[in-house]
Write a structure and sequence with these properties.
Shape: globular
Oligomer: single chain
Largest sheet: 6 strands, mixed
Structural class: alpha/beta
Distance between the termini: 27 Å
């Protein structure tokens, strides 16, 4: 899995590409924890090129969201979800736990 990051003044944009499963989720977890360790708690996750999301991937995203929302410091928002990934969040009951936006520009502007 290839993961790119961009740092803006108001937030960080993280863009994983490929499957987010038990083998690749630790890479995303490491990158998200690195951003959080720098004291940056506003993250846009561009999921436009993620075509599969496993339970381990969900766990990584939920744990990172908990850390971001603690003490109202920030949050993780999603941009450009595939319908399959959106269905995964709906089935897991997490569609209201993360804000979703149609594109990255709108998601960044939400901060």
């Amino acid at each position: 899995m290839d993961i790119s990051t961009l740092q803006y003044k108001r937030c960080d944009v993280v863009k994983p590409v490929g499957h987010l499963d038990a083998y690749t989720a630790p890479n995303l977890e490491e990158i998200l924890n690195g951003i959080l360790a720098k004291g940056r708690y506003r993250i846009v996750l561009d999921l436009s090129e993620v075509d599969f999301l496993s339970s381990r991937g969900l766990w990584v995203l939920v744990e990172a969201q908990k850390k971001c929302k603690r003490y109202n410091r920030g949050e993780i928002v999603f941009a450009d979800l595939h319908p399959q990934i959106n269905d995964t969040f709906r089935l897991a009951g997490l569609e209201t736990y993360f804000k979703q936006f149609d594109d990255v520009v709108t998601a960044v502007a939400s901060f």
